Request: fold
Amino acid sequence: MEEIRQDRRNAVASAFREEIGHAFEPGAKVMSADRELRYSLELQRDHIARRGIRYTDEMDPGKKPTRGLHNVRSWKDGHYETSWSVGYIKHTRTAERDGLKKYKKTESQLIYETVVDVSDGEDVSEDTYCCPNCGAVSSIRELQEGCSHCGTSFQMSELYPKVSNFFLVHDPAVNTDPLWKTVTKCGLRSLPVTLLLFSPMIWLDNNFSLLKGSNFADHIVVPSPANIIAYIFAMIILSPVVGYFVWMLSLFFAAFRAIGKETPAALSVGSSRKRFAAKMSTISPEYTFEKFSARITSLFKIAIFSDNRESLPFYAAGDLSENFDNVVDCTYRGWMSCKKIKEQNNIVYVTGDVFVDATRDMGDRLKVKSEVYQITAGRRTDAPFTTDFSISKIQCPSCGASFNSFKSGKCPYCGAECEPAADDWMIYDIRDVGKKYMIKKILWGLLIVVLLAAAVFTTFEGVKQK
Ligand SMILES: [Zn+2]
Ligand SMILES: [Zn+2]
Reply:
């Protein structure tokens, strides 16, 4: 039984990796994702289309094991089992629009997927259900996006397992090119600089040697065209050697950038998981931190990409159009920290910081920047919690029309307000806290420089003593 469940989780993770590459194609529905993540991807696609941008994603699993690794980490609570799956991809993203400088980026990445499943509960996805509106018979699985015959929407429990969050991590180690290729590319790219740097060589005659201690001035001649060509040729042949040094340096600086970028986040996240579990176990034990952060990330993305935030049933934060209207992509960086948990009037409020890389449309170009947002979300503690499967037709209490009440708190036909579902998270506040982390980052940078200087100094002193 346990094995069958694990197989189904693996299948969902693999399917997601396949589907996510096509998520921005017209009409695509990422069915391996849960309702919230699926909706956030649809909204993002529509939002990008409204701005006239076309995204093309190519995700090549390469020669590495395409099936990826499953269950690399897992968490359990009373009802859910959450686990991470990891896969390798070579990700090429192209963005196009008239007047926009073509954006194309290829990166070796690891894709992490948060797979949520229920620990117990039966699989009803293949059971049949008769649509109460038109009478057509469909499987439960087919009804997730409404009845395909009459369009009736249903309120139904999630059909686990599903992917409920994902993030992409740049990983140079996944680079599939052999070393000689990387190094040669690096060398040829730095050729203009190399040629300039060593150009004094062509002004010297053949007899000059530093070892003989000759004087420069005695050996300067006007270079012949043959000499110049020979020089350029030699530099091209030597470019892998130069490339090797440039490549080593670039790795070194990349590591430094990564430290500066991730340290404050890592420190802030630190013990969040434990703290969340300890506090929430007494209030609302059916949420692991992974499940919670996945849900909040999806709701945050829905809020960013929606063109009608006020009508979102879970959204009670202020107007954020100015902050978010030009965001065309927002990738979770795999970090969320839990800052505060408070219980008041039968609602538990959790405040956490979410670390994202936001891509903004600047008109003529796209700009990617690391940003941090502090989100306060709340959930009622008196609403009964159940993992039993349920399905019912959604109907407007005023005009009787069927619409997806999860996507909109107002009936799209008559405008009547509908009660939001009582048992899920609401977002109460979103604020930009990037500056706070910027200061921390600068302090960390300074600390690293001081430590480095100290290390160099002691080594130097040590050498002198010898
Ligand atoms: Zn129907
Ligand atoms: Zn209505």
In short: Residues 396, 398-399, 401, 411, 413-414, 416 surround zinc ion (ligand 2) (CB under 6 Å). The radius of gyration is 28 Å. The chain has three domains: 2-176+270-432, 177-269, 434-466.
